Amino acid sequence: MVRLRVGIVGGGFAAGHHVKGWRANKAKVVAVSDIAVERARVFAESHGIPRYFSSLEEMLKDVELDVVSICTPPQTHREVAVKVAQANANMFVEKPLATSYSDAAEILNVARSKGVKVGVVSNYLYTPVSIKARRLVREGVIGPVCRVDIAVYAPREVVLARSGGWLESLPGHVFGEVLPHAIYILQDIIGKLDVVSVDFSRLSEGGWTLYDELYAVLRGERGVGRLTISYNARRFDIYVYVEGEKGSLIYNPVGKIISRLSTSWRWASNLLSLKPYLELGFDHIFNRAPRDPFAENIGDFIRLLERRDDDHLDMLLNQVRVYEEILREYR
């Protein structure tokens, strides 16, 4: 099998995860570009990447690439992704794909016309706990899904700071950064989403954001969903509650908690609620659980490169439409 040649755009924090994930899948990371050439140089040297550039155009012209990982801020994704597609390179994009539906549609239209593939980071679907929970839902362990609640907790220090840096230019400020995680998790369980209602509020005093709490109700193809994002926590965390006709699942995609609850009132039925958690523990002991969600995510994208279908593109557009509709209410 020929090893993929990968270029990285943007030498910030996320790019390091991409490099590690590509290498775990036996790909060659051969170049990095960043508009701050010193950052590109430092990133290349620290990650053992042979070439660095101060512009995407130079990298695309001088290096033959199979895939480009786009790790620039979301508001730049349309411009960067279109250039990558026009250079006939596949792309793996940091979430969200774009900050508006029109930008996302343009990216995908150009990609289709050039015959290149588009993937978007959804790393919290690939943690050991998420993989276990998704399998239990698919196997019907809790029966048909009725509803899903997702709660995302983020540190209050982010909104209480004097400024938000690059987050200030995002739609919805801080919410524009974490909302994509909640959307793709919810969509994975109940399918394409429609926004029913959105509300923002503020509990803390001071800080640079308009709000620090988000509540949204959505309708999916296979159930209803509710998401909450709170910037009044001590640390980042996510909890997902999936209610089915035969029982429920509670899991923590960024941690190690997973529990299955029966609909029965009998307490004995729920003594085994931690069985999936114990099974996951054995998976870790016997090295059966994935160690790097980014590597798993990228591995799934590599398998996508080998297929002819583009069925996932409608789901990517749906994610951006929901993202835009929710954050439109941030005012």
Question: Can you walk me through this structure?
Answer:
The chain is of the alpha/beta class. It has two domains: 5-120, NAD(P)-binding Rossmann-like Domain (Rossmann fold), CATH 3.40.50.720; 124-291, Dihydrodipicolinate Reductase, domain 2. It is built from eleven helices and 13 strands. The strands form two sheets. Strands 8-9-10-7-11-12-13 form a seven-stranded mixed β-sheet. A six-stranded parallel β-sheet has the order 3-2-1-4-5-6, with helices on both faces. β5 (90-93), α5 (101-114) and β6 (118-120) form a beta-alpha-beta unit. α5 (101-114) packs antiparallel against α11. Mean pLDDT is 91; it is low at 265-272.
Structural features:
331 residues, alpha/beta, Rossmann fold, Dihydrodipicolinate Reductase, domain 2, 2 domains, seven-stranded mixed beta sheet, six-stranded parallel beta sheet, 11 helices, 38% helix
Number of strands: 13
- Shape estimate: globular
Strand arrangement in the largest pleated sheet: 8-9-10-7-11-12-13
Strand content: 15-25%
| Proper CATH architecture of the largest domain | 2-Layer Sandwich
Instruction: Note the gap between the termini.
Output: 51 Å
- Under CATH, the topology of the largest domain can be stated as Dihydrodipicolinate Reductase, domain 2
Largest sheet: 7 strands, mixed
Structural class: alpha/beta
Mean pLDDT: 91
Total of domains = 2
What is the CATH superfamily classification of the largest domain?
Dihydrodipicolinate Reductase, domain 2
User: SSE string, helix = H, strand = E?
Assistant: EHEHEHEHEHEHEHHEEEEEEHHH
Whole-angstrom Rg? 20 Å
Q: What percentage of residues falls in helices of 4 or more residues?
A: 25-40%
Number of separate helices? 11
The CATH C-level name of the largest domain is Alpha Beta
